[in-house]
Amino acid sequence: MDANAKKDNGLERLQKIMAQSGVASRRKCEEMIQEGRVTVNGKVITELGFKASHSDEIRVDGSQIAREDKVYYVMNKPTGYLTTLKDDRGRRTVMDIFEDFDLQNRIFPIGRLDYDSSGCLLFTNDGELAAKLTNSSNNIEKEYVVRVKGRLEQKDLVKIRRGIEIDGKVTKPSKAAITDYDKEFNTTQVRMIITEGRNREIRKVFDALGFEVKKLKRVRFGNITCEGLALGKYRPLKIHEVKTLYSL
Q1: Has 114 been annotated as catalytic?
Q2: Architecture of domain 141-221
Q3: Which of 82, 165, 180, 195 is the S-S candidate for 139 at Cβ 3.0 to 4.6 Å?
Q4: To the nearest whole number, what is the mean pLDDT of the chain?
Q5: CATH topology of domain 3-64
Q6: pLDDT surpassing 80 at residue 194
Q7: CA of 43: how far to CAs of 26, 30, 129, 240, in Å?
Q8: What residue segments make up the domains of the chain, in order of their start?
């Protein structure tokens, strides 16, 4: 019998091993396999159902992968930093905040938090968890505090809750509530919970309603908050926090 047909011999799907090793998300690893970029013990593998073990020699684009210890962090991201691994224009990225020691684990940010936004941002080298948390079909909640220019009305909240068309597609229904109105500066504070992660989604939603976002902070991602973390600081997640993320 082909060793890869056995189910109880410790073998796992190749894309899962790659994701666990921090190569990329499982979906991206599947693309790499189909593109013929992955070898196992010297043989090019293009079959997504192929199984291997962590003791096999697995290479991506000629470079051997290694099983890494999984690490997980939460950062209270300041504004003025790009959420990316590096920037070809030399601008600051969230990776510049980390100590060199922590960067040895090839961590990457989970999802987006744009340049002008602050708050709760997660990092890991666990491609499997990252894929789970960024898949909109899993309905992982992200909570934000938003301050916009002008006075938001209940009719605007109704539209947000039902979904707003942006970029030719209606957003998923969201939770939204007005928490403050500053009469002196004519600004409204809104608390929003969304389950999508589309590029600049919240800013585009308010722009579609005719409101300019003056301040945007994410206060929760799933069950994780940055409470107690100073702006620009980060900490490792506790074991129970990671387990809860996996259970979402």
Answers
A1: yes
A2: 2-Layer Sandwich (3.30)
A3: 195
A4: 91
A5: 3.10.290
A6: yes
A7: 20, 16, 28, 40
A8: 3-64, 72-136+224-247, 141-221
For residue 130, CA distances in Å to 101, 185, 227 come to 21, 39, 22
Active-site residue identified among 56, 102, 114, 116: 114
Q: Which band of pLDDT confidence, cut at 50, 70 and 90, is reported for residue 108?
A: very high
Token pair belonging to 37: 């970029």
Residue 71's contacts (CB-CB under 8 Å, 6 or more residues apart) are 102, 105, 107, 124, 125, 126, 236
pTM: 0.77
Distances (CA, A) of 138 to 54, 70, 225: 28, 22, 19
Using only C-alpha atoms, the chain has a radius of gyration, in whole angstroms, of 21
SS3 at position 217: strand
Equal fold, 3-64 vs 72-136+224-247: no
Read off the tokens for 233.
């600081």
Q: Which CATH class is domain 72-136+224-247?
A: alpha beta
